[in-house]
Request: fold
Amino acid sequence: MPTTHTEHEPEPARVPGHRAAPLPVVDPATGEAFAEAPDQQPDALDALIDRSHRAWRDWRTDPAVRSTALRAAADAVESAGDDLARLLTREQGKPQTESHAEVARTAARLRYFAELAQLAHRTRRIDDGRPVHSEVRGRSLGPVAAIVPWNFPLQLAAAKFAPALAAGNTVILKPSPHTPLATRLLGSVLTTVLPPDVLTVVTGREPLGARLTSHPGIRHVTFTGSVPTGRAVAAAAAASLARVTLELGGNDAAVLLDDVDVERIADRLFWAAFRNCGQVCMAVKRVYVPARLHTDVVEALAERATSVTVGPGLAPGTRLGPVNNAPQLARVAHLVRQALADGARAAAGGHRLTGSGYFFAPTILTDVPPDSPVVTEEQFGPVLPVLPYRTTDEAVDAANSTGMGLGGSVWGTDTDRAAAVAERLECGTAWINHHAELSLAQPFAGAKDSGVGVAGGPWGLYGNLRPFVVHRPQEEART
Ligand code: NAD
Reply:
């Protein structure tokens, strides 16, 4: 009989609108269900969104109150850090150190946006030389639907609800059915410091998310997930003309230049691809290497892939956990099998690990046909194809050849030269000699199919506001 393992975790029976059969939550390190979450029915959303709307009337009025509450929320997250991190590892699979880092980033995000709440109400004068007094300030939107995937359940949720709340909106947050528990715990921790109904966590199978995105009471849908679901979300939100922010998939390329110091960058490059078991939207998912360095790079990466400690996230010393869920494991295995059948060779890994749990051996692929789906699609797992190139133009063209454009990186000893090549990447963020490093203050936006709208920094706050303009003749303005 599966059991919940934290005292914080509410019993499914106490949650309104849940189905009789709850949602089983699987520990990816064992492949066994270990807990349950409520499978809330879409009909439950009407009452919850109505309450969220009523809570918005007070929450939107005073940015100082919101700043104080968000700071208290950051403190509360830190106080519950050990419980949150343990539950996160249990349901997501990542090593404990990474779960603690995710909790810390969740608190940091709340603290960052607590400081920005005041910006939401700042009045800006528009001066276009005409005798008119025109001013603009931000107004909140109303209830926001925040939908997140299973790879970083807490930090991606905070990336959505922290700016939305700072701007004066209320939030209905839906985690992935694969990882509902840490988010539910986060929600119950935050109810101790936020006013009632300002943040509501709902859990359940589809069509819960679909109903949330098309609900007429929702004014902004902020979604992180795959490109196909992002398209469905945009179409659903069109029904109520809610605005959408979409942070979607990536297939980031790392381009190594001919002056790269392979041993110097190998650790950084390896972890840019394999952190969180490769389940990072902006992980390195393809590496392009000058033909003469190809063998060196493959060997350096394969050495790291074969020596890294793979195991349950709760086991001390584990650096790489399991893939999060069975369908994702099947997808990763399928892409690798297909590449091997097309002539690729596994310099490391290439297979599932025996025993229980969703473990896949860290895999470095070489001799991969450039049109193999493991190159052209997002693998989202512990698998990295390394492809040789002859000219820099050829590498840039290959890097830009997919429909996605989240991030990209260029690696070399002459960093000015690398930066010049990075300018040519069609993506939202380009890094030099590292990858996937983000600061809270910078915008995060994908190019091409990787996203619509902007998250992060003040841009994240503005995406949760609408401009309100007051316009009157100058003379009347003076009286
Ligand atoms: P997914 O698109 O399958 O699911 C994402 C969320 O949407 C989940 O909560 C899911 O339950 C929900 N959902 C499913 N169908 C829905 C529908 N019809 N309407 C509304 N919601 C629906 O993605 P996933 O497999 O959970 O996550 C992996 C994907 O997320 C990868 O493509 C990855 O690149 C992407 N991702 C992007 C970013 C980013 O910031 N750009 C960050 C992390 C992950």
